[in-house]
Amino acid sequence: MIKTLGYAVPDAKSPFRRIEIDRRDPGPRDVQIEIEWCGVCHSDLHTARSEWPGTVYPCIPGHEILGRVSAVGSEVKGFRVGERAAVGCMVDSCRTCPGCKAGLEQYCDGPAVFTYNGPDKHLGGTTYGGYTARIVVDQDFALHVSEKLDPAGAAPLLCAGITTYSPLRHWGAGPGKTVGVVGLGGLGHMAVKLAHAMGARVVLLTTSPGKAEDAKRLGASDVVVSRDAAQMKKHAGSLDLIVDTVAASHDLDALLALLKVDGTLCLVGAPEKPHPAVSPLNLIFRRRAVAGSLIGGIRETQEMLDFCAKHGIVADVEKIPIQKIDEAYERMLKSDVKYRFSIDMSSLK
Ligand code: NAP
Ligand code: ZN
Ligand code: ZN
Predict the structure, then answer these.
(1) Beta bridge partners of 17
(2) Cβ 184 under 6 angstroms from ligand 1
(3) Which domains are assigned to the chain?
(4) Measured from the CA of 46, which atom of ligand 1 is nearest?
(5) Sign for the pseudo-dihedral over CA of 115, 139, 158, 323
(6) Does the pTM exceed 0.85?
(7) What DSSP character marks residue 143?
(8) Which residue of 77, 143, 231, 297 has the lowest C-beta tally within 10 Å?
(9) Are 58 and 129 in contact (CB under 8 A)?
(10) pLDDT tens per residue across span 266-301
């Protein structure tokens, strides 16, 4: 076992504190990574503060992990010491269920073992995420990230990137399609960049009028202030797909009204409280659908990382030392992130 420093919350109400945890010695199939950057996802906050059920404490979040390989097991193929490597939201899955066989490990019947707050089958207890100096992961759940990409900005691709890439691909975002993105936060700004790079026309729906200029710079053709009914009405029936990244409960009917016939509202935001009920008529009259999507499989995550390398896409990040993590959470709650915090893990001492 290797002693490793990390930042943990001891319960749902207390600030983060520095602790020491154990990481397993790399087994034959494992890749050991020294973490350089870790993005801050709103899911980290939901989990750390027990907004979702089942948080085990101490809790160390972080699933946008990028670093360098420092050791590999004897059976590892495809990763070498010194090479850049990354870990996203999952560290294991059953490998045999239909989801796993289809490359959709996120929908594993097992279920998949999540990078933090999951059952650690190697050491017992709970998995610890990327707010740590080092992680040891099965080679099947380690990813390659091009050295061409800025590492601080590339880390958030491991969750914000894949969580938006996957539904955009699934529902066919591309030339001739108009995609609405709700919320310009970590996920939302990646959705704008990715949908634009796929060739779709992008409309951003935001509660923050001050973000309009940035949204256009990131690739949106139009920006709609979602609390302005007149602006919303102008876009009625115009969107093929909406990717909703909002981290709080909100009215979905107003968004559904923007969809064309056969349009889909895909929820990726996972607020603590449910959204108000949807009006059936709003679905029936244009054969609209409400759907959801969870991150993406490992194969698709690698495809997304390669797509981002080809198009030079990374997240727009504010770099922070780990000591500023509580402050970052407070700013995230105020929708005040431009547009992802990325933790410089060299600050962890
Ligand atoms: P974030 O950076 O905090 O962004 C959320 C954005 O939602 C805000 O920037 C804001 O954008 C908008 N917003 C916030 N409160 C709002 C409200 N009351 N009404 C309307 N809009 C509001 O969060 P994130 O990291 O992108 O994560 C977003 C959500 O996705 C979280 O619930 C997270 O847990 C979830 N998530 C899901 C998956 C998945 O696999 N499905 C993966 C990762 C994260 P504007 O200022 O532009 O309005
Ligand atoms: Zn996430
Ligand atoms: Zn499985």
Answers:
(1) 8
(2) yes
(3) 2-159+315-347 (3.90.180.10), 161-292 (3.40.50.720)
(4) 34
(5) positive
(6) yes
(7) B
(8) 77
(9) no
(10) 999 999 999 999 999 999 999 999 999 999 999 999
